[in-house]
Amino acid sequence: MGVHPHDAVTVVPRTLEGLRLLASNSRVVAWGEIGLDYHYNFSPRDSQLDVFRKQLEIAGELNLPVIIHDREAHREVLSVLKDFLGLTGVVIHCFSGDLQIAEECVNRGYYLGIGGTLTFPKNKDLKSVVQRVPLEHIVLETDCPYLAPQPWRGKRNEPAFLTAVLEEIAHLKGLSQDKVAQATTANAEKLFGL
User: Fold this and answer.
1) In CATH, what number does 104-194 get?
2) Does the keyword Hydrolase belong to this entry (predicted)?
3) What's the CA gap between 57 and 7, in Å, rounded?
4) N or C: which end of the chain has fewer CB within 10 A?
5) Percent of the chain with pLDDT over 90
């Protein structure tokens, strides 16, 4: 749960207080998807930054990991996160950065959320990142209903399609699908306290 950067301009103090109250439920395992989106800029950048920081503060107070939306704002996102080093866990959702950004994330102990875009034939940069990043820093994600893997590209994404992402990671890393499944499941369990 959280306020997506597209909606940052709509946030008033009671919005965040209401979310804080809802997040106290033990079934809530993370705060997000929050962050910065400098591609669409549906909310002004100053509003996005302000709401992002406020939500990181609350997540830290509640000891919840965060799911980070980062679209064309890699450096800015990492700069803000530098002020919140005590967070329980961080996932860079739908990772789209380069190897340098990935290495900085790994060095900070973050997880890279890898989904359907990994299976796109022309996404060589992400394939290269996944080959080099330790499996201990990867979690699988769907971004449902968006970004379905290649066999279903353009259709509604479904959790069942994660098998295509898992297969691609296994192929890129030269590992068995079972090994990738076990590792990414363990990562998710650790991250979300499951």
Assistant:
1) 3.20.20.140
2) yes
3) 18
4) C
5) 99
What does the pLDDT look like over 150-191, one tens digit per residue?
999 999 999 999 999 999 999 999 999 999 999 999 999 999
Q: Which residues are annotated as a binding site?
A: 33, 69, 93, 143
Listed by start position, the domains of the chain span: 1-80, 104-194
The pLDDT value given to residue 107? 97
Q: Which two tokens mark 99?
A: 């190897």
Give residue 94's identity as a one-letter amino acid code.
Answer: C
- 58: confidence class by pLDDT, cuts 50, 70, 90: very high
Buried b / exposed e across 146-169, counting CB within 10 Å, b at 16+?
ebbbbeeeeeebeeebbebbbebb
**Secondary structure string (H, E, C) spanning the chain:** CCCCHHHHHHCCHHHHHHHHHHHCCCCCCCEEEEEEECCCCCCCHHHHHHHHHHHHHHHHHHCCCEEEEEECCHHHHHHHHCCCCCCCCEEECCCCCCHHHHHHHHHCCCEEEECHHHHCCCCHHHHHHHHHCCHHHEEECCCCCCCCCHHHCCCCCCHHHHHHHHHHHHHHHCCCHHHHHHHHHHHHHHHHCC
What's the mean pLDDT in 73-84?
Answer: 97
